[in-house]
Amino acid sequence: MTAESGSVRLAHGRPFTVDDLEAMPDDGNRYELIDGTLIVSPAPGRRHQKIVYRLYQVLEQACPAEFDVLGAPFAVRASPTTELQPDVLVGRDEDFTEALLPVAPLLAVEVFSPSSVLNDLNNKRAAYQRLEVPSYWVIDPEVPKLVAYELNENLVYHTVAEVKGSEVFEAERPFPVRIVPNDLLGRLAT
């Protein structure tokens, strides 16, 4: 059963599904699902977007031919009740469809917005861990700081790097790449 809310049909008494996402308005918000729970994020700010675009460029330049780098709103659809839109993702080229990534990416990156910090550190991190995404990075644009997590042998995330400012992260997964948080902000880092 659904309930009407303006022009959007909302799930009532059942988990949200990817079919419900298609009914969401194109209003600048990001709509995602984690185990049937709808997550709505407002449009990101300048520092957030600067980091996303610059990180995309750094990853794209280092990306081997068998992988691809994409950004939100490109979706990772793990099931009918889970669809995530990492700010940046890396996957195997062969795994992508034209519309989405139906399997776990090799890397998911979330850049904090004031409204997303708790969700990115808790709900999304847990969802990516359940999906067995090998590498998960979070970036705080205010510091700036990058924290990189990787799955261990028990399929639990552990911190492999925490760098801020002009410190260097020499990532090995999903491919070798050098990340400096200040560089991702450009002139906004000063």
Concise description?
Residues 19-176 form the Putative restriction endonuclease domain. This protein is α+β, with helices and mostly antiparallel strands and 190 residues long.
Which segments are poorly predicted (pLDDT under 50) over 5 or more consecutive residues?
1-9
Distance between the termini: 52 Å
Helical residue percent band: 10-25%
What is the alpha-carbon Rg in Å?
Answer: 17 Å
Mean pLDDT, all residues? 91
**Total domains:** 1
Q: Could you give the order of strands across the largest sheet?
A: 5-8-10-11-12-13
- Please identify, by name, the CATH architecture: Alpha-Beta Complex
Largest sheet: 6 strands, mixed
The CATH superfamily name is: tt1808, chain A
CATH fold naming? tt1808, chain A
Task: Give the oligomer, counting copies of the same chain as homo and different chains as hetero.
Answer: single chain
Describe the structure.
The protein is of the alpha+beta class. It has one domain (44-189): tt1808, chain A (Alpha-Beta Complex), CATH 3.90.1570. The chain contains 4 helices and 15 strands. It has a 6-stranded mixed β-sheet, sandwiched between helices. The protein has a 3-stranded mixed β-sheet with strand order 7-6-9, with no helix packed on it. Strands 1-2 form a two-stranded antiparallel sheet. A hairpin with a 5-residue loop joins β12 (145-151) and β13 (157-164). The radius of gyration is 17 Å and the shape is globular. The termini are far apart. Mean pLDDT is 91; it is low at 1-9. This is Putative restriction endonuclease domain-containing protein. Residues 19-176 form the Putative restriction endonuclease domain. InterPro entries: Nuclease_put_TT1808, Restrct_endonuc-II-like, Uma2.
